[in-house]
Amino acid sequence: MTYSWFSRVIVLGYKKPLEREDLCELHESDSSYIVCPIFEKQWRKEVLRTQERQEVKASFSKETHARKPSLVYALWNTFKFVLIQVALFKVFADILAFTSPLIMKQMIVFCEHHPDFGWSGYGYALALFVVVFLQTLILQQYQRFNMLTSAKIKTAVIGLLYKKALLLSNVSRKKFSTGEITNLMSADAQQLMDLTANLSLLWSAPFQILMAISLLWQELGPAVLAGVAVLVFVIPVNALVATRVKKLKKSQTKNKDKQIKLLNEILHGIKILKLYAWESSYQKKIIKIREQELEVQKSAGYLAVFSMLTLTCIPFLVSLATFGIYFLLDEGNILTATKVFTSMSLFNILRLPLFDLPMVISAVVQTRVSLDRLEDFLNTEELHPQNIETNYIGDHAIGFTNASFSWDKTGVPVLKNLNIKIPEGALVAVVGPVGSGKSSVLSAILGEMEKLTGVVQRKGSVAYVAQQAWIQNCILQENILFGSIMQKQFYERVLEACALLPDLEQLPNGDQTEIGERGVNISGGQKHRVSLARAVYSGADIYLLDDPFAAVDVHVGKQLFEKVIGSSGILKNKTRILVTHNLTLLPEMDLIVVMESGRVAHMGTYHELLSKTRNLTNLLQAFSEQEKAHALKRVSVINSRTILKDQIVEQNDRPSLNQGKQFSMKKEKIPVGGVKFSIILKYLQAFGWLWVWLSVAAYLGQNLVGVAQNLWLSAWVKEAKHMNEFTEWKQIRSNKLNIYGLLGLMQGFFVCSGAYILTRGSLAASRTLHTQLLDNVLHLPLRFFEINPIGQIINRFAKDMFIIDIRFHYYLRNWVNCTLDVIGTVLVIGGALPLFILGVIPLMFLYLTIQRYYVASSRQIRRLAGASRSPIISHFSETLSGVSTIRAFGHEQRFIQQNKEVVNENLVCFYNNVISNRWLSVRLEFLGNLMVFFAALLAVLAGKSIDSAIVGLSISYALNITQSLNFWVRKACEIETNAVSIERVCEYENMDKEAPWIMSKRPPSQWPEKGIVEFINYQARYRDDLGLALRDITFQTHGEEKIGIVGRTGAGKSTLSNCLFRIVERSGGKIIIDGIDISTIGLHDLRGRLNIIPQDPVLFSGTLQMNLDPLDKYSDRELWEVLELCHLKDFVQSLPKKLLHEISEGGENLSVGQRQLVCLARALLRKTKILILDEATASIDFETDTLVQTTIRKEFSDCTILTIAHRLHSIIDSDRVLVLDSGRITEFETPQNLICQKGLFFEMLTEAGITQDSVTK
């Protein structure tokens, strides 16, 4: 009960910064591994019970109100026995709290009458010590079980939310964005936990109020009813405040959701924002939402003024009303020391439940909002298992019979009347134009779409390669194994087949290299090959491959087909369904399915399709045109082993240009040691020094008036004994009461002033720190986002800003109040009993020693707890982005187990934090109890030499000092540990930033006019500790020239484009565009005048119009014109809201091809003199590709175009080709001249199967 077993951790934490291994482990029954399954079982029971009730009601009445399963009932059934145990501890603690004033009463009586037997006084002093010490032990047990239970409830809810997220249907995913679901887990589950921690107050507060009133009745009789009347008046007013707070909470939650959702998208699409110079536009969007949030916070702050007035002034108002009526009831009533100080002690006890009751009612109201949100999510529609039959045992592997599908039950069918039978072991291609439903066919096979009609059958396990590769934040080997057991021989075979061996040579730790979030430290092609390797290694029966060759070079794609997918590959005996735009593969297929407008237009073998219809022949002739137009010719066999060997040799012979990407993701940095005072100073500066000094003055005034009230009462009681000797005693008593009332009004003024000043200052601090954080994050270089998990960054905006917004100023205020309170208490008792100072000095020394040990350990435990929250958010976000892949592989249970692991780590840290607080409280309160005993003992020893009023004043103050000192140490620690949030928010301030967005030197408004790009002895490296990524690059383009940039993997192609945009800064040399050195102008002036169509099409949630033109520069007419040029006009016109069509998060309600066309439309709108193409048409079919290439040639005919080529056919008609190798220019000539030279470019053409004849045609 004294928590001595935890002293080991406290002492260790004082000696060195604590680490996770130093903490005490949870009892097994308290871990997430036990808690989550028990709660899930109770939730399922609640769902079944609700369904049964609905069915019974439906049988009696046709119109029944649908009742949702209750989360509260499920939680009660799970934790009821622990909650009852917590309630019993609270009852005993409350009873003991009221015993102390009664013993104090007897001591005052003893001092008034000075009995002959002095030992009874010592007995009272000892009894007072025993009672307060027992109260300490029981109250700490209550706190321990209460806090642990509330944390277990949060854990259980997070576990259920995570499981639900893995089961959501597409309709449900549209309702809840990733940001909203993450907010449910972080904010709403936390709100539920906070309420549970205070839930006992719902019955404890009324119980304490009734106890206090009944004891006050014994002292003051019916006069106490006047105090009750004040309470009856105030509580409904507090209820109105609680109702208002509920509305504010709801509004605040919506704003927080919007902000986190937008932030999540900004951070995922940060590269696009930087390339297009859109940071300031999106910064304004975030600040606009933030201002709405702060408006709500301001309203809540002004309501807090009333709450503070209630907390401080209700005991005074109650005592004033009670004493006033006490005098009116009987003119002979006199306030004795016994009555006053017993009553005042009871009023002080009454103060907390009076304040807590409205607060907990308000918390219940607020939590009702969170509960509604949680229940809405938990009761949303899940994927229906009946969408597909998976237990089929017939002849074919996959079968569709008259099957139609939609993304939701009521929606328009996306796939119509599918009749497809795929034999086991067949290789099937699904082809068709953009938006024809190719990827949807795979989604239907996975059961991800709503089946409207027909039958779908699937036999065996599935492996899925998504069109946008999903990569986990773990080592590369774990990404490939994906939970399977390591089989070394097969694993190495898979690596070779998927052309990953050369990549392992590049990576710093081979297959043990940690891959960052979303695979940021590997290329697009590497992501797809890792995703393919994961599928191959799984050993599934059916392989669904959604355009896996889109982001890989031609020769690598050929190898992947031959070694993995084709008739001689690893998967030759498996069923393979391949969505592809690479039509040269069609003759290799066993079956071809041609999709058009959601229907199967044609189906059969390659030769069957050629002979069926003239239209199809035309289509397949168009396929052939692809080969002619781009001079592609299939070569007989390229020895993949030789290519692989050559690549490895190349990588060993030259420094990798992907050195810039050779890194592992950074783990959350856990600070050690004390928080620097400069961090607190930074907050106070943001708060505003005027508000700081005004608030200190207000709280000093409040405490001085409080002390004056008690001293006035003490003096009044002294004179009351002799009141009958005065002729005008009634007038004197009335004056005394008036002055007491005036002091109360002064206190109320100071309280209101302090609360108002604090609200204004805290709003200023919140606004300043958030703006600085956002500005710092957006100015960080792109590399920062590649090595830091997004969960860590979002945690700064979510959890850390929440602490700064709501908690930090509250802790600061409480600490100031407690400091002033403690000083006042010691001075009052010291003035009454001078010897008390002698006892206080050693006790204060012990206090400070305990505090020093505790703060060092508690600070680090809280930091560990803070760092353990980020993996929960990161894992949750990662799961949401890869939920289709997880479900396809059937790995839901494994990911649920991983979630339990990260949640359990956080729970362990929280548990140690709770125990450290209990360890402190037991020791501090014991010392406080010694102070009470010491004050009582001195009062007994003083005997006749001390007035009973002084005894009452001293002991009542001593009873308060126990709580005040404990509170003071706790709040000092709270300030230091929560200042870590300010430290984390300010952490980005001192990091290396990008160059300024705008500089004093600005280019002319029409710059660049000619589009001449010149590199002069240019050198670049990704980090100071890495080798050069580009070496001595010198070349110049002509105006309106079309330049192709080629090179093997790691040659520096992407680095070159990054240098143009100053994503990577120079190490030497310079780049000049139309006579201006780009290093001399601001980034926005540079990036805003360049144009790029990136490889990865990134869209943001919002309207289509906003995605095309976030800066709102162009008219609707211009938007429609570019949509027509991009062949999207018909599609957009078919949408109900047209340009105002809502794009879902990440653009998920458009196909990847359509997203790429939207990106092309953006480029057409900007239309600057320099365009960079980064394999911009990899995700679209041949027909659209041809149209897009024609559009680019026509619309950008007067521009300089730099094309970074992964596929050589896209640059074969360039004016000149720049060949890079090892970061150097090896060749720079026309394509025809380069072929004649038979250098590196000629080798690459040969590998790609492009002949000299076809180039010259």
TrEMBL record:
Residues 84-366, 693-967 form the ABC transmembrane type-1 domain. The keyword Repeat applies. It is found in: Vacuole membrane. The keyword Mitochondrion does not apply. SUPFAM superfamilies: ABC transporter transmembrane region (SSF90123), P-loop containing nucleoside triphosphate hydrolases (SSF52540). The chain crosses the membrane at residues 71-99, 119-139, 195-217, 223-242, 300-329, 697-717, 737-758, 822-850, 926-943. SMART domains: AAA. CDD domains: ABC_6TM_MRP1_2_3_6_D1_like, ABC_6TM_MRP1_2_3_6_D2_like, ABCC_MRP_domain1, ABCC_MRP_domain2. Its main location: membrane. Residues 398-622, 1013-1247 form the ABC transporter domain. Pfam families: ABC_membrane, ABC_tran. This is Multidrug resistance-associated protein 1-like isoform X2. It comes from Mustela putorius furo (European domestic ferret). The gene is LOC101671308.
